[in-house]
Predict the structure of DNA polymerase IV.
Amino acid sequence: MRKIIHCDCDCFFAAVEMRDNPEYRDIPLAVGGRSDRRGVIATCNYKARAFGVRSAMATAYALKLCPTLTVIPGQMEKYRQVSRQIMQIYREVTDNIEPLSLDEAYLDVSDSELFQGSATRIAEMLRCRVSEVTGITISAGVAPNKFLAKVASDWNKPDGLCVIRPDQVEEFVENLAVKKLHGVGSKTAEKLEVMGVTTCADLKKLSRVHLAEHFGRFGERLFELSRGVDNRAVVTQRVRKSISVEHTFSKDLKTIEESLSHIPELYLELQRRFSQLPGDRAIQGIFVKLKFNDFTQTTIEHRSTVHDESLYSGLMKQGYQRGNKPVRLLGLGFRLDNRETEALQQLSLWP
Ligand code: DCP
Ligand code: MG
């Protein structure tokens, strides 16, 4: 039986800002882009969440929901620094760490001898240490696998702990809403609801074959998750080789001009995701992916350590000429240089 802890900072960017600026602590606060520049909310504190403000929401809309909301720009370098400090605290407990983003990580403490191997007490200790050292609160989930640990860390947020012991798994999962399952987005949840499934107890009644018929390979996963089974390992050595943003359009893009017009928004989102990668990653190339309306696809790459919209436009034109048909999906990406990351990993200094 494994013991997994999932740790997730509470309203991370906003928490750092509230720590450093006492005047922000008791007001609704968001970190995000300006409303007059079509900005979006990166995150907000819990006072703002009470008004319905959420991550990824347009700032203009957030201000409608909460007119007293204070929106401030983010300071990524500072958040990265706090993230490194937090990951270092986790590393004092185990090297079996899988960082998922700046503020989130899985720890496999199955073999830890700390506190006689009590994962619950390890998690409490981590929560205390992070708060003492960084002034940020984290929530933690303890469970026999990654899926349940992640659900658990969200259960008593903010500043909470939730433990799901092996003997509690069955009951816990039966009462769980299917939309809490990893990989079940709003579309799948709707589809399941039509089938009469809202909880995992409902889901458990469906056979493997039935699920495979409706959901393909994901059906097998649903079968397992609804029984609280998740055998994924905590992967410590994963080095990302690329990062990309893709969008499938509800209506095919009929001309190259139409395709080119989507570069700015995709490029912005790509840079946002890149800025959130753990560690300092160097770019060694850029690429564009196009999928045409007949589902054929093509990727055009260019080795380069610099990037801008015009380079992506050039690649997109080349790619478009290969198919010369309406486009259903566009993707932009960076190839990442792994040499330095791999070297740092050897020294356990990454991220
Ligand atoms: N983030 C972002 N844009 C998003 C989602 C998140 O820029 N669409 C950033 C801001 C968050 C950080 O990533 O502070 C961590 O994301 P989480 O989803 O863990 O959200 P929070 O930590 O802010 O809140 P929670 O307390 O719900 O974990
Ligand atoms: Mg968080």
Observations:
- Residues 8-9, 12, 103 surround magnesium ion (ligand 2) (CB under 6 Å).
- The chain has a mean pLDDT of 93.
- The CA atoms of residues 189 and 200 lie 12 Å apart.
- The two ends are 28 Å apart (CA to CA).
